[in-house]
Design brief:
β27, α14 and β28 form a beta-alpha-beta unit. The chain has 690 residues and is of the alpha/beta class. It has five domains: 96 residues, PriA, 3(prime) DNA-binding domain (GIY-YIG endonuclease, 3-Layer(aba) Sandwich); 38 residues, no CATH class; 178 residues, 3-Layer(aba) Sandwich (Rossmann fold); 178 residues, P-loop containing nucleotide triphosphate hydrolases (Rossmann fold), CATH 3.40.50; 85 residues, Ribosomal protein S10 (Alpha-Beta Plaits). Helix content is 31%, strand content 25%.
Length: 690
């Protein structure tokens, strides 16, 4: 007897295909199927009644093979939601989640006395076994092979909580019945938020469940893993794009089997097929890195909340400066909110001073004010460390012609090239192309150019000149690219071999440097006047996070903020530590202008190398919208209208609910010509509408 199934191939496809097999196979099984004269992996999403098939049954192909592990119903429901909500093909969602598992042959680990050992050598060395002992244990079946891979043998160190942390932890214990809940834990920097949620991880692991911890940056996973190892005595599963295919396949096998484990990873890990997931933690939940901008677009934080709902799991959102969306949801009582108001080491929060650059203007070729110079000298003499913060990579953000002042722009993008002095190259930060520094002006044919503005490398030159004899280090995504570099840089900071740090925004993301006593924010205004409606919120979060690196242990730290607009409400809020007032005003502004979190927005972006084709498609969308009364906004060029040799035009829908948004998009997509769909990109909740 043949059984018929709807199988969703793993790949860029949104419609399931019908296959048959002579035996019953469970829904959710990972199968191998013939597809276009090759073998492909797929997931069985439903069984089909033979009466419902309207085509020749003889033409239905057979499933080639199937595997012992299945994707549980909760995950299939979650993947369908991601596909519908984010307008991503279901096959593509499965590809991001399953990663072509199980193409690789995986070696099993060894199980002895309820403990897992990675290799035979590890087990033999642990118990000092002879070959005879090993053989005897094998024959007695005391040593066996296991597909489990999470090597945990009890806590290595107790996680002690202070009374504030303990009270919050007790309130989380109500989830022992496996109810879906979302808790927003807001704590000042250094208040012990990580220890609090690690205690929740311990409790969940002891109960035999799986935990997922989301971090905004790959660079943070190594330091986080060391902290985890200190308490748990083992390494968590680590998930990010740099892992090998074998490592990924082994992790997916463990997740599918329901093995109790802890996985830490970047945004893509939210899609992984956990079978027994009961705790999801989203650290630095406000961070914009959780939004997938390239390829299929989704917001990992929001997907984590829905995944917790599907799995009936506890979801913890952690931040020192929560997003306005999360604060709004807590005001609406959709989330439970908790506050940690004091630093764990009982240190006072750093004092914040505003440096008015209109009054304290440095010389024409300098960027560091006298107040910052004097305070830095004072801290250095007391053997403290100092951070100079500037959110701009490279040496200079642009080079202009000395004759006609025209900037050097990328050949592939409508964006200025950034000069990186250390490698003596001009780099486009949008398409990542490198260009020689010796250029000819396209406007006047001059070969002389002037560097305009300041980047981290130029700031480092000034710091080296002003503070001779003190070692300094750049701390940015450029210097932390390799594991070796990152380890060496962080060790030098902890061992006090580095006195001065020159860092970009990555340093504000969960790094803990105990001896850092002063933070100097050099150009606080740089992101404040962006056309993005979230500019004020992002600037406040960034400055608050960076300021929180100061004085985390020992004496009270200090923060100096250089600005040309000292009376701006953001700086007053930071100085007086009155964040609630800023949030109240910002939410009021958003509500008056029908902006998130009060309204939902979708961006429909047209991307094409031919400007005339873009215009035709724009006119088509306008015609459909007018006839169907869709009330569309646009078209407007993107902030960078030409990027990677393609033109970018945007349309927007605004509605109070996602349901109303999807209805409009469905009408538009059903009427637009297929030739235009190919270069149409849909983004729910875009990070920016600039």
């Amino acid at each position: 007897m043949d059984y018929y199934y709807q199988v969703m191939p793993i790949g860029q496809i949104n419609d399931s295909l019908t296959y048959k097999h002579s035996h019953f196979i469970e829904v959710g099984s990972i199968v191998e199927i013939p597809l276009r004269k090759r073998k492909s992996a797929g997931i069985i999403i439903s069984q089909t009644n033979i009466k419902d098939l309207k085509f020749d049954l003889k033409k239905v192909l057979s499933i080639s093979n199937y595997y012992q592990f299945t994707v549980c119903t909760e995950n299939i429901d979650f993947y369908k939601y991601v596909s519908i909500h984010c307008f991503i093909d279901l096959g593509m969602v499965l590809k991001m989640a399953i990663q072509q598992f199980p193409n690789k042959q995986l070696k099993n680990y060894y199980l002895f006395e309820n403990k897992i050992y990675e290799t035979q050598k590890n087990l033999i060395d642990k118990y000092n076994l002879s070959k005879k002992d090993w053989q005897k244990l094998l024959e007695e079946k005391k040593i066996s092979q296991t597909t489990d891979s999470f090597i945990f043998d009890g806590m290595a160190q107790n996680i002690s909580l202070n009374p504030d942390q303990e009270n919050i932890f007790k309130s989380l214990q109500i989830n022992k019945n496996n109810d879906f809940q979302v808790h927003l834990i807001e704590g000042v920097t250094g208040s012990g938020k990580t220890e609090l949620y690690l205690k929740a991880v311990e409790s969940n692991l002891v109960r035999g469940n799986q935990s997922l911890i989301l971090l905004p940056e790959i660079a943070l996973t190594e330091e986080w893993s060391k902290r985890f190892f200190k308490y748990f005595g083992c390494r968590p599963f680590i998930w990010h794009s740099k892992q090998s295919k074998i490592q990924k396949a082994r992790i997916i096998r463990s997740l599918l089997s329901g093995e109790p484990c802890v996985l830490v990873g970047a945004r893509s890990s939210v899609l992984l097929p956990f079978k027994n997931l009961k705790l999801i933690i989203c650290d630095e939940e406000h961070d914009s890195s959780y939004k997938q901008e390239d390829g299929p677009k989704y917001q990992a934080r929001d997907m984590a909340i829905y995944k917790a709902k599907c799995s009936k799991a506890l979801c913890l959102l952690i931040s020192a400066s929560p997003s306005l969306e999360s604060l709004h949801n807590s005001n609406q009582r959709k989330f439970h909110i908790h506050h940690l108001s004091n630093q764990f080491h009982k240190t006072q929060l750093p004092s914040v001073e505003i440096v008015d650059m209109n009054q304290s203007k440095p010389s024409s070729r300098a960027w560091i004010s006298k107040q910052v110079f004097d305070e830095t000298n004072r801290v250095l003499k007391q053997k403290g460390q100092v951070l100079f913060f500037l959110n701009r990579r490279g040496y200079a953000p642009s080079k202009i012609c000395a004759s006609c002042h025209a900037p050097i722009q990328c050949q592939n993008c409508a964006a200025n090239l950034v000069y990186h002095k250390k490698i003596d190259r001009l780099i486009c930060h949008h398409c990542s192309n490198y260009f020689e520094p010796n250029q000819i002006c396209k406007m006047c044919s001059s070969d002389k150019f002037i560097s305009i503005g300041i980047g981290l490398e130029r700031l480092q030159e000034e710091v080296t000149r002003l503070f001779p004899g003190y070692s300094n280090q750049l701390f940015s995504s450029d210097t932390l690219k390799t594991k070796k570099n990152k380890k060496e840089i962080i060790e030098n900071i902890f061992n006090l071999n580095t006195s001065l740090l020159i860092g970009s925004q990555i340093i504000g993301k969960s790094f803990h440097f105990p001896n850092l006593k002063l933070v100097n924010i050099i150009d606080a205004d740089s992101s404040l006047y962006s056309p993005d409606f979230r500019a004020m919120e992002k600037t406040y979060q960034l400055l608050q996070q960076v300021a929180g690196r100061s004085g985390r242990e020992g004496n009270r730290g200090k923060v100096l903020i250089q600005t040309y607009n000292p009376k701006h409400s953001i700086y007053n809020s930071l100085k007086n530590q009155s964040r609630d007032q800023f949030i109240k005003l910002e939410l009021q502004r958003r509500e008056e202008n029908n902006l998130p979190p009060f309204y939902k927005i979708v961006q429909i972006q047209l991307i094409h190398p031919d400007v005339s084709a873009i215009r035709e498609a724009c006119q088509e969308i306008l015609d459909i919208s007018k006839k169907s009364r869709l009330d569309i906004l646009g078209p407007v060029p993107s902030l960078i209208p030409y990027k990677m040799k393609h033109f970018h035009e945007n349309f927007y829908f605004k509605e109070r609910t996602y349901k109303a948004l999807r209805k409009k998009i469905d009408i538009l997509m059903s009427k637009i010509a297929p030739k235009y769909k190919r270069f149409l990109n849909i983004d729910i909740d875009p990070l920016s509408i600039a």
